[in-house]
Design a protein that fits this description.
- It is found in: Cytoplasm.
- By secondary structure, the protein is mainly beta.
- Helices cover 13% and strands 34% of the residues.
Length: 187
């Protein structure tokens, strides 16, 4: 199975102290289910699978290989997540075959079910980290000469077993909407 190009291989990952607008950081730093967060902004969240299947370690990107243990095969799932039919997010999930044991074997059969519905439906989930990043604009630099999109990468653990999730927020996603001012009485 060839490497799909839903999420560009060349991303600019930020250092922990790099500035991120507060309303963007609030979204990117979401520790709960992104699916649930999106559901607060639409009537229906749906998933369109683009590619699902096992790949070898040779098909991992260097930073993905560094974040995951050696395994003969990895389950790759690439999807488009939509809010009311509008594409909001591109998702790329990589799961070492050793993670797919017991009830977690169901991860290979999610189809149109959002990953968050599975992951956050149980109590055995932990998150090692969330990294923030940007796609590169036309000039090759984030935000210059083209529109950059925000992206985040998380290493999660199901019952202590790792998986890697990369999420790219598309232009129509609610993450880019200006925060609503709060109404104060007397003004």
């Amino acid at each position: 199975m060839p490497d799909a190009l839903l999420i560009p291989a060349s991303l600019h990952w930020l250092a922990p102290d790099d500035p991120v607008p507060p309303h963007i950081a609030d979204w990117l730093g979401e520790i709960g289910s992104m699916t649930r967060r999106f559901e607060q902004h639409c009537r229906e969240v749906t998933v369109q699978p683009v590619q699902e299947g096992f790949i070898s370690r040779a098909h991992l990107r260097p930073e993905e290989a560094a974040a995951l243990p050696d395994s003969p095969r990895y389950w790759l799932r690439e999807i488009v997540l939509l809010g009311d039919g509008v594409p909001w997010l591109l998702g790329r999930t990589l799961i070492p075959e050793e993670t797919l044991t017991g009830p977690d074997r169901a991860l290979v059969d999610l189809g149109t079910v959002p990953l968050g519905r599975y992951l956050f439906g149980g109590a055995a989930l932990t998150r090692d980290y969330i990294h923030f990043g940007l796609t590169k604009g036309d000039s090759g630099l984030p935000g210059e000469g083209g529109t950059a999109s925000w992206v985040r990468r998380s290493r999660l653990r199901l019952s202590g077993k790792p998986l890697l999730l990369t999420e790219l927020f598309l232009a129509d996603a609610p993450v880019y909407r200006a925060p609503q001012p709060t109404h104060q009485e007397g003004r």
